[in-house]
Structure formats: structure tokens, C-alpha cells
Amino acid sequence: MVGSASEFVRARYRLAVPVEAAAERAEALRYEQTVELPREAVQDPFVEKEILPRVEALDPVEGGVEATLAYPVATTAHDPAQLLGVLFGNCSLQDDVALVAVSLPDSLAAALGGPRFGASGLRRLTGVAAGPLTCTPLKPMGLGPERLAELAALFARAGIDVIKDDNGLADHAFCPFEARVRAVQEALGSVAQATGRRVLYAPQVTGTPSTVRRQLETARALDVRAVMLSPALLGLPTLQELARGEPELALLAHCSFAGAPRVTPEVLLGSLYRACGADAVIFPHAGGRFARFDVATCRRLAEELTAPRPGRRRALPVPGGGMSEERVEELLRFYGPDTMLLVGGSLRLGGAGLEARARAFVALVRETARRLAPEAR
Amino acid sequence: MVGSASEFVRARYRLAVPVEAAAERAEALRYEQTVELPREAVQDPFVEKEILPRVEALDPVEGGVEATLAYPVATTAHDPAQLLGVLFGNCSLQDDVALVAVSLPDSLAAALGGPRFGASGLRRLTGVAAGPLTCTPLKPMGLGPERLAELAALFARAGIDVIKDDNGLADHAFCPFEARVRAVQEALGSVAQATGRRVLYAPQVTGTPSTVRRQLETARALDVRAVMLSPALLGLPTLQELARGEPELALLAHCSFAGAPRVTPEVLLGSLYRACGADAVIFPHAGGRFARFDVATCRRLAEELTAPRPGRRRALPVPGGGMSEERVEELLRFYGPDTMLLVGGSLRLGGAGLEARARAFVALVRETARRLAPEAR
What we know:
The structure is a homodimer.
Chain A: E1 8-15, H1 22-32, H2 45-50, E2 54-61, E3 64-72, H3 80-88, E4 97-103, H4 106-112, H5 118-126, E5 133-138, H6 145-158, E6 162-165, H7 177-195, E7 200-202, H8 209-221, E8 226-229, H9 231-234, H10 236-244, E9 250-254, H11 265-275, E10 280-284, H12 295-306, E11 316-320, H13 328-335, E12 340-342, H14 354-376
Parallel strand pairs in A: 5-6, 5-12, 6-7, 8-9, 9-10, 10-11
Antiparallel strand pairs in A: 1-3, 1-4, 2-3
Helix pairs in contact in A: 6-7, 6-14, 11-12, 13-14
């Protein structure tokens, strides 16, 4: 068995209860998340000592109380699905509790594995040794492989570092996965012959576990080095398995369907996606179309993705969600140079001249990063 | 390609906006959920006609407006992950929208497959031809295989129809999956020799896709006929794949982690879990520890699970979540005889005499169902 009996997963919950009711509410949570029995029905000493979490702190905050629970790591079985269930399974059905912070002990972090490539691996794959990376999606859903491949070639010529599928692209009859990946890779190969630079393409894998496995094999056979996936659609355990299995591909995690739970973005997209192996995480930056991602949330999320953690590579934050060229400086000031800037729709306004606009975007990011570099140090 | 161009997935969203802003908000949603581009940037006639959903209705309701969007079925690629993404992927990150109803066209329902066993298959597996079934969990997390097997034997002798793992049971070092399933199956085999009746045991499968696959094979080798899983932890696509693949096992879907999204329980646990193959769905009935499941929600959820749908078997509602013997009549009046009553913790209060209490619970359910039968007709 991995992990010692003295290791704990610590979880902080915000309880929407008055201070005087907090101790009892936290006590109920201890039982709900593990034994699911009334207190009187739990008489086993092993269960009392090694299963039930301890309440380590009750801190009054605005609108309620934050309770810190320390779960013996053995409760998680060192498994991503079980971890999520222990942290927020049953209490996801209770409106007065939100999960706001998680810290994992080393044995669990090691078992989950974290990013296989991480920020440094993505820099290796793209050849961008320092400074921000640039990224844009192939879209919209409805275009066929040839049209998307033309777009990819255009963005590659413009100097974009990472080209990804839009998260609406699946294995559609009008744009099958294999045909799309083949067409885009061929187009990027032609550009690479002309420019000497091979752009990283991350097609989206999506579907049931066996479908995703087939897509990964197809992608690998076509010399793809990275894929995008939405862990909230596919399941967090699927992310964790892909990050450890074959083929070895960098994983860009997209936030689709992940916004809804009363688990804060910094916990789900930050701590847990990184722990389960996301090399980069795509999320909406504050001020776009997604109000729940405010500045403080984005700050904490970036911190969770990039802070040093024993045995876990740093993941790359990819702010997006309605970003535009006008906000490049703001984003680079906020996230620093270890980030990937994702711009989609705003590049696509204005009809013709898309390649010129993409090129200007890349130049703007480079120039702004250079200008800010002394400040950042 | 499955499905005709004239088939639509219809989704009803509750928008927390004033009536005068509803048309514009619904318009933004059309683009957000499919092409993710500004309107001006979408110029392709195929995309306009075959990808973008139509707004079919805008109905004022208390606190906002309900918008009905009709998505061309082709957008879903007839895949469960893509369906979920189209329905609620990006807009899960927007606090002013909730998904409150979904209807699937026949081609998509057929592609997803629905329950393989359904209510009738569970009756066949349990030998309960009519009237409500009874169910209780093996718990708490922390007990070893032998202790859980003793509990299983006790519940089997008491006449319980379905014994399931508590949703906290995983492949723990102190209670490994294989040892637990083997011990419980042997205990139930001994009871069957004495009573002539083999109780259905549903161990929980959980973990990454390959772990779950191994657990299913282990379970099948030990003559298990049903398993429990939490689709919100494992991913909805995993449920759909298990419902169609080998081995053929009945699937009890548990609601762990499913309560949080702003997708109503009747959509997620009702429409989508059934469409993706859950034979039975376990959820908290109104009045237990889970406030968001009110009476009206439970009514709609049961309706989604049991209403006739072309090509989809009925699934069995399994109300639980803090139910007790005192509420048996209320539950049977509410759900009718085509249901499975799940009672856990309340049986476990009072120390010794557990078998007698379980037996009394079974008798109470049978007797109450008989008494109510004329009313139900």
C-alpha cells in the first residue's frame, strides 16, 4: 500500500451556515463524505481512526464558515474517481457547501502523477524556449477537413505556436476525426517545409473511453504530439489515465462543462486537473463572457497550475474565452511570460486579411513580452 | 451517417434575464454552444443551416425566460460526450443559464442505446415480478471483505432484493475489490443454498477506464450480474460504453458528484443517464438530507426515467438519501410499485437486531405495496 497512515488530503469547504451551527454542520460533512452512516451506527475503531476525517479548523468568513477537513489518504484508494467522490461526491447534492481548496499529500500526488510534459515539455514541443506562447482554434464546427486545414496553414504561416481544434469539433460525419487530423497535419507539414518550423497541432479527442483510445492511436500514427480534451465531459479519471498511458501525448485540458459544480475553478481546473496530468489548462480569463471567473479566481487558478509542488511538473495556464488583441498586455502583466495566449473569435472579425491579423497578433504578443520582460524580473 | 437532417435535439434553458433581453441572450447561446464565433464571422451556408440551432420558443417564467433551442442532431456526432458539450459545455461557465429539459430524436436515442436491462431486466435478475424492490448498501467504508460479506448474508436472509456497495467503497487496501466481491458472492451463495433465492449483488466499479474494465471482468468471473457506478465521477461516456459493451451487466447509476451542475436532476439523472444506459438510478428523495431534490423535481425525474420512449427501456427509480421505514408508504404512493426502495443508515440504528429490522423493512414494503395496489390501479 502506498502512503502512510499519517498522510492526509486536506479539503477546505465553505459552509453557508451561521457560526454557531458550523461545528454541527462540519460534523455531518465528516460522516456524509465517508461512512454515510449516523454517528451512533459507527462503532468500529478502525473506521473511527483511519476513515473518518478530522475537522482541523473552523474559520468564520463572510456569509458562513470555512471548515478544513483532513481525510486519511487511504480513503481515496489513491484513485482519481474515488478522490473526487470523497472530496465532493454526496455533498455536491447539498446546496450549503462548496469546495474551495484542496491539498494532496505526496503519496497521492505521486500516484496520480501530474503533468507528463507540463509547461517545460510544451516549450520543448513548440520550440518556444521563453516568453508567452500563442494559440488559436480551428473553427467553426461545420467546416470540412480541407477548410480547417487551410485555416491551420494560414495560422502556421502567421507564426502561431499551437493550433488546436475548437472544443465543438468531434468525429462528425461532415468532418471525421481521422480525415481532419490527416489534412491538418499535411498542411502543417507543407508549411514546415517552407518555413522550417513545425507548428504543434492539438486535435480534440472526445467520446467514450474506447473511442478516445482509437483517436489517440490515430493521432499518434499521424505524428500528432498533443491533444485537447474536456475532462469534465470525459471524466477526470480518463484524464489521469491518458496522462500515464500510451501513446505519450501532451494534454491540453479544456474547461467545457467544468464551470457548473460548486467546486471552485482553482480546485477543479487548478489542483485536480494538474494532479491528474493536464499539461496545460484552457479557461476563460476575467472580463470575457464568463462572469464567474473573476480576477481573484484567475489569480488563484494560475497559482494552482504553476506553484512548485513536490513531484508535479508545472502546468501552463491558457487564458481565453473572448480575449482580444487589445488585452494582450493586460494578460501578460497578469500571468507573466509562462503562459499561452488563446485568441479565437476576435481574430475572425473583419473578413479578409485573417493571416495578416494573426501575424500581427503574434508580433504583438512577442513585442509586449519583450517590453514587459524587465518588469517581470 | 445516422439521422436525417430534419432531426433535432431540443433543449430548454432557463435564462435569468429580463424578458426584453431574452432574444439577444438566446441568440448568444446559439453561437456559444456550437460555432463559438461572433455572428459576423459565420458566413458559411452549411454552418448557418445545419449547425446553428434554431430558437423555437421564448417563454417568460418566474425570474426569467425559458428558451427552447433545436440543435440539428448532426452537431452531436451521435456521441455522448459531444452531446453533453453541445447541450451545456461552454454555457456551464455562465451563471445566468440552466438546462432544464432535453428531448432526443430517435436516431440519437438509438445510437446511445438506453438501458440494456431496464426495469424489466432488473425484475428478471431479482425474480421480483411485480411490486417494489428493496435495496440496502454494504457499509461503512473501512470494513474488510469478511465483515461486509456477513452483512450481505444477513440482508439476504432478511429478504432484501438488491444489495449494493456503498458509494464510498473502492479498491481500498483494507478492502480490495476482488476480495470483497468474492467474499460477498460466496456468502450470498451460501444463503441461496439455504433459502433457494439468490440475491442480486451490485458491487461498485470506480476508477480510470482500464481499472473499471478490469473490475467488470473480475465481477463477471465471480458471477456478478449487476454493478453500481457514479457517471458524474467516471464520465457520462463511460456509462454509455459500459451499457453497450461486454460483459453484459445491469448498471445502477449513483448520483455522487452529480448534484452540482446547473443542469436539473431530471435532465442529468433522468433523460441523460437513461439515454446512456442506466438500468436504475439512485437519487435522494425529497425531504432527506438533500434539499435541492424537492417533490416536483423528484416527480419529473421519475417521469424521465419511466415514461415510454421509442426504443428506450424504462429505467427503475431508486429513491434513497436518508429514507427510513416511516416513509415507505409515502414513497410507494409517490413512485408507485415500479420502484426500488433504498434504505441504509436508518436500518443501522439500534445496535443488535439488524437482521430483524431488515426483515421488518422488507415485510413493510411488501405489505404496504399490497395495501396500496387497488389505489395504484
